[in-house]
Amino acid sequence: MDAERIITLHPQGKKGVNILKSKYDQITEFIIQKLREYEEISYQKLSDLAEIELSDSFDGKVVWYIVSVKLDLEARGFIERIPKTSPHRLRLKN
């Protein structure tokens, strides 16, 4: 049983990670949904919400997947870090 996998991208060109596409899709959907809901969100709040909302149903370390998929979505131009925010905040890219 070969499950489809994806190699993530990194915004600074570093080596991505190889993860199950089903998990990638689930985390991507979560991140996009939260960015639509909040418009802007701190990375910390996004991680906290993911822990609360996904931990019971997600098989794996939720925060690790949030980091990996967030970086991939940044590299692909779907989301962006808002410049000069500390702690860094995220938004959907126009």
Structure overview:
The chain has 94 residues and is of the alpha+beta class. It has a single domain, classed as Orthogonal Bundle (Arc Repressor Mutant, subunit A), CATH 1.10.10.10. The protein contains three helices and five strands, in the order ββαβααββ. It has helices spanning 21-38, 43-54, 62-75, and strands at 5-7, 18-20, 40-42, 79-81, 89-92. Strands 3-5-4 form a three-stranded antiparallel sheet. A two-stranded antiparallel ribbon has the order 1-2. β4 and β5 (89-92) form a beta hairpin.
> Number of DSSP helices?
3
Number of strands: 5
CATH class: Mainly Alpha
Q: Which band does the percent of strand residues land in? A: 15-25%
Query: How would a textbook summarize the main sheet?
Result: 3 strands, antiparallel
Estimate nothing, just give the exact number of structural domains: 1
User: Reading side by side through the largest sheet, how are the strands ordered?
Assistant: 3-5-4
* Secondary structural class: alpha+beta
Distance between the termini: 39 Å
Question: If you average the pLDDT, what whole number results?
Answer: 95
Task: Based on Cα principal axes, name the global outline.
Answer: globular
> How much helicity do the residues have?
40-55%
CATH superfamily grouping: Winged helix-like DNA-binding domain superfamily/Winged helix DNA-binding domain
CATH topology name, in short, is: Arc Repressor Mutant, subunit A
Over all CA atoms, what is the radius of gyration? 13 Å
* CATH hierarchy: architecture: Orthogonal Bundle
Provide the descriptors you would attach to this structure in a database record.
94 residues; alpha+beta; Arc Repressor Mutant, subunit A; 3-stranded antiparallel β-sheet; two-stranded antiparallel sheet
